[in-house]
Amino acid sequence: TQLLEQSPQFLSIQEGENLTVYCNSSSVFSSLQWYRQEPGEGPVLLVTVVTGGEVKKLKRLTFQFGDARKDSSLHITAAQPGDTGLYLCFTGNQFYFGTGTSLTVIP
Amino acid sequence: ETGVTQSPTHLIKTRGQQVTLRCSSQSGHNTVSWYQQALGQGPQFIFQYYREEENGRGNFPPRFSGLQFPNYSSELNVNALELDDSALYLCASSLPGSAGEQFFGPGTRLTVL
Asked: In the prediction, which pLDDT does A30 show?
C-alpha cells in the first residue's frame, strides 16, 4: 500500500490541451509539495502547499491542497512540450514521494 | 550559490561488491537526505543526516549506511550489492524547519551486474 497514490500513472496529450494530476492519501499532512523531474536529472520543487483548501498558481500550473489536507491536485492549462516530465507529490517532513505521473506533451 | 552535486554520474558494479556515492550539499544547507529511485517510479527515502547524525531512516537494510562530514557533504555506502540495488541514487539538501523543501542533485546511476 502506497502512502501517496497518484493518478493517472501515465499521460500523453497534445500540445495545448489541459490536464489534471491527482495525489491522494488516507493520511493527513501538515504540508505537501509537488516536484517535476526530467530525464537524467533530480526532481525540482514546483510548490509547497500548507493550508487546507489552499490554491497556488505558477504560470500555467495551478496547485490545490484538499480541505482535509489528505489530497492535492495539479492542473496544467495549455500544456507545452516543455511540461514533459515525471510529476511527483511529496509529504515533506515524512519523506514519502507519490507513485508519480509521467507526462508527455506531443508537439 | 552552488547547487547540490553528486559523484560519480554513473557506476557499474558486480553483485557482492561495495560502493560509495558522494554528495555535496547546497551552500548553507546542513541536512542531507538520500533516496533510491527505480526506473519509472518515485524516489524511496533511504535516510537523512543532520549535523553529522542520522536523523531518520526508511525501510532499507543495514548494508545501506551513510556519513555526513563537518562541511555537510555526505556519503552513501552500500555493501554486498544485489541486482535490485540497480537504480538512480539521489541526494537532496535542505534547511531544518523549511517544511521539508529539498534541493536535489542530478543523481548517480548505479548498475549492478
From this structure: 86
Beta carbon pairs, A and B, within 8 Å = 59
CA distance B49 to B32: 5
Which residue of B95, B104, B108, B109 to mutate against A (max A Cβ within 10 Å)? B104
Q: What residues contact residue B76 under an 8 Å CB cut-off, 6+ apart?
A: B20, B21, B23, B34, B46, B64, B65, B66, B89, B91
Which of B35, B41, B48 is facing A100, going by the closest CB pair? B41
Q: For B15-69, how does the pLDDT look when each residue is reduced to its tens digit (9 = 90+)?
A: 999 999 999 998 888 899 999 999 888 999 999 999 899 989 999 999 999 999 9
Q: Which residue has the cell 545501506?
A: B64
Cis check: omega of the bond before B8, within 30 degrees of 0: yes
